[in-house]
Amino acid sequence: MAYHYAHYLEHVAAAGKQQYPIPLYTNVWQNYVGEDGDNDFPIVAGGGGYPGDYPSGGGTTNVLDVWQRFASSLDFIAPDVYLNEYASSCRKYRHRNQPLFIPEQRRDDYGARRIWTAYGSFQAIGVSPFGIDTLEPATNPFTKHYGLLESVSQIVLDAQSRPDASVGFHFDELAADGSDPSRPVVKHWGGYEVTIERCFVFGKAGPGAGMVIHLGGPKFLLIGWGFQVRARSLSPTSTFTGFLHFREKQVANKETGQLRTLRILNGDETRSGIFAMMPHDDPDYGGFPICVTIPAHTMIAELEVYSIEGKDDV
């Protein structure tokens, strides 16, 4: 079935490109049964585990090679991500280094947080929530996410052009029992182990999302909110890793990606150099009277770390 659909669509795409030489793609209704399923609600229109239970023949991951071989006039095959684990879908649809575009996905907070994973970890060229026009801009969760992404778009594009220069992530709401469904993200960059985790608060921790870009050496750009970053030197002779600078940045020129320093953060904002906090815009102080976990402002900051090396015995 996949061969015949792909073969037919190749004729359509090839003929179309003769008239309009523009990028072409087809989207995919994914099957949701399996280890990467992400759904806990009744399925009204979506997915399935067997041919006939969903529109079989499309470019699902098990026949993606067939589509790429027999519909080569398509520039990429794009997944609809509703009921499948987000990062897994992104990873699978970068198959053979094809561009990642998500033409349909959830339009709620849960979906909005995940677009940072697409852009930061899988170099997505676009993410489009289905039915975004059914929400008012003032209450639409994508307004905040897209607004921040738009302001740093040139910076993100530059990072996407460099291998392994960025990572995107999200931290979901805590479970009803207080457990954390989101795990920390760990990267090795510039001789340091960088750990990204949910931001500390005195009260109840909230959700978060964003990306970290390795600027080279010991410098990192933090974008987003609701997370914090720790660093540890990977040098076997290092005795201490600390923060040299932690500066809140503001976009000075969107076209060039130029940033300017707005505030110098230290002390309480880093728990005396333990971690660099990128707080939520309304952190829960849990009744604590001192506002040490300052709320987010620009949601952009530059971190520079350093390591102290021990002396060899003589």
TrEMBL record:
Where in the numbering of this chain does the DUF5597 domain appear? 142-276
Q: Which InterPro entries match?
A: DUF5597, GH
What the entry lists under SUPFAM superfamilies is as follows: (Trans)glycosidases
State one Pfam family annotation. DUF5597
- Protein's recorded name: DUF5597 domain-containing protein
- Record the organism: Penicillium cosmopolitanum
Q: What taxonomic lineage is listed for the species of origin?
A: Eukaryota, Fungi, Dikarya, Ascomycota, Pezizomycotina
